[in-house]
Amino acid sequence: QPSSSKSYLDNLPSDFSQPTDDAGKLLLREYGSVFVSRGGTTPPKKVVFKDQADVIAYQAGVQRSSESIGGMTMTLQTPAMSALKAAISEAKASGLTIGPRGADSSIRDYDHTVKLWASRVNPGLVKSVGNGRITQAEANRIRKLTPFEQVPEILRLEQQSIFFSTDQTKSIIYSVAPPGTSQHISMLALDVKEFDKARVRSILANHGWFQTVTSDLPHFTYLGVTEAELPGLGLKKVTSTGRDFWVPNI
After folding, report:
1. Are residues 182 and 98 in contact, defined by beta-carbon separation less than 8 angstroms?
2. What is the pLDDT of residue 173?
3. Above 50 in pLDDT, residue 217?
4. Helix segments in the chain, DSSP class H
5. 243: nearest Cα among 193, 205, 191
6. What is the mean pLDDT of residues 167-183?
7. Which of 139, 165, 169, 234 is the most exposed place for a label (fewest CB within 10 A)?
8. H-state helical runs in 94-218
9. Could you give the angle at which helices 147-158 and 136-144 cross, rounded to 10 degrees?
């Protein structure tokens, strides 16, 4: 079957765990480009890692490289790092830099994603109890769940327009990735300091790095192919704020 006619689902790893719940399907649509990464990478085979041990087991089985970039140590899967270094060299020839936004711009562990998640969930629960949208007992019940168990509960509340983003006007997934879902866990994502420069975005695309999360402008994902090959992986181009994002065509 020619790649041009293969769907996104056809391009997932052969033993990928397809989500069956609404939360998992939503997360696959929002963050799913990384799962069809090529170029010698090892994409995750599940949408949500359950806990720190689950993340450690995956990260231990992946070839990775660490480099000092912009004065900070970045760790990525080796093919992604090689491509990034090539992009940095091309940028330098044009008098441009490509570097990370901060120390946590590349690899992240599960506990880091839990802290970010809690920084949105806890204020949201307090506000929702305060304005009578949920009971104190319900908030307490959700707080006691593991982060893995909290994800579908929070997304269920958001179906009722009880939102948990920073400003509490939209879904939490436009603010932080739920625990165990961040593309940074896979070491195939980088938050780029110079994300606003069109020329930098173009150079990164030349080397297989693309924007894949429409709500996260600094975030780039290593997909390991040329832009012309992305539709063949089942990805579609969405243009927003003058930028092109490649997202699952599902």
Report:
1. no
2. 86
3. yes
4. 8-11, 22-31, 52-60, 78-93, 110-130, 136-144, 147-158, 198-206
5. 205
6. 88
7. 169
8. 110-130, 136-144, 147-158, 198-206
9. 140
At 86, list the tokens. Answer: 């090539």
> pTM of the prediction?
0.89
Strand partners, 73: 68
Q: List, for residues 80-127, the tens digit of each pLDDT value.
A: 999 999 999 999 999 999 999 999 999 999 998 899 899 999 999 999
Q: What share of the chain is helix, strand, coil (3-state, %, to 5)?
A: 45, 15, 40
Number of neighbouring beta carbons within 10 Å of residue 184: 24
Read off the tokens for 211: 């924007």
Residue 87 and residue 49: Cα distance in Å, rounded?
30
Please, which residues have CB within 8 angstroms of residue 112's CB and are 6 or more apart in sequence?
A: 104
Residue 209's DSSP bridge partners are 222
Integer Cα distance of 161 and 173 in angstroms: 14
CA 195 to CA 168: how far, in whole Å? 25
Provide the token pair at 38.
């090529």
Buried b (16+ CB within 10 A) or exposed e, 108-133: bbbebbbebbeebbeebbeebbeeeb
H or E element in which residue 23 lies: helix 22-31
Q: Which residue has the tokens 């994902």?
A: 221
Say how far apart CA 31 and CA 247 lie, in whole Å. Answer: 8
Consecutive H or E run containing 69: strand 64-69
